[in-house]
Amino acid sequence: MLTVKEATPESFDGVDVALISASSEVSLALAPEAVKRGVLVIDDGSAYRMEPSVPLIVPEVNGEDVEWQSGIISIPNCTTTPLVMALAALRQRAKISSVTVSTYQSVTGTGAAARAELLAQSRDMLNGQELSPPTQYPHRIAFNLLPQVDDFVDDDYTKEELKMLNESRKILGDPGLRLAATCVRVPVEISHCESVSVEFDRPMSVDVAREALAEFPGIMLMDRPGESVYPMPSNSADEDEVMVGRVRRDLAHENGIILWLAADNLRKGAALNALQIMDECVKRDCVRPRVAAAV
Predict the structure, then answer these.
(1) Are 90 and 235 in the same domain?
(2) The dihedral of CA 165, 168, 173, 178: what is its sign?
(3) Domain range enclosing 289
(4) Which of 36, 43, 79, 140 yields a CA-CA distance of 20 to 30 A from 208?
(5) Which GO terms describe its molecular function (predicted)?
């Protein structure tokens, strides 16, 4: 039986590593208390992502950055993680000039209540019943697409779209990266998909791009379009890898490559990434040993 208790500052006494997956308010309140007690905090919220003193980690991309942490490590947004893995693979072969990405994000990115609402709306619509007013999104999500993920802010971009820009720049160590995102919520339970157009400073062949992606840790190349083999929510859910396919020339840009990716937002987009960060910290001796535990 798993015992669940309310987290308090004292909960961290004797703890080596704390994984926090809660609201920003909770993270801001509890993470400093954990650090005071010598605990390494891996935070899955947005509270610390853009703090200059907090590394933002995807282990396959910038795992070495855990070494300069001062007690808190942040996990990227669930759409950023698979994107930067693909970009990190490709930039090994040519410098990236710009990125344009459109996302197709499942409802579990919002939470369990959004999943329940999708299922309830779908059931009611299929049974010809009147729908209750939506509570999780501005409009119904069943049999619909919403070109809004989070609130609108500067220049009519959403917070989610700006997260992808700013987090990608930080993780890749490229503050001048040109990236524009359009984030869309779709009526799917699990897995986010992304259509990604990457422009380079010189031409890159499709074969070179495929090779770079196939060799990158954590990426599974699933690219046999003639056999209708490509990433989808249905084959990426419950999987650990970021799946990439539909790799092809960008006919609108001489030095461009277009690809399609899918990843389980609950695994690599969140929980798996947290565990991999913890493993990286252990391998790099970033977890403070507890003398008392050995007595």
Answers:
(1) yes
(2) negative
(3) 9-76+272-294
(4) 79
(5) aspartate-semialdehyde dehydrogenase activity; NAD binding; NADP binding; protein dimerization activity
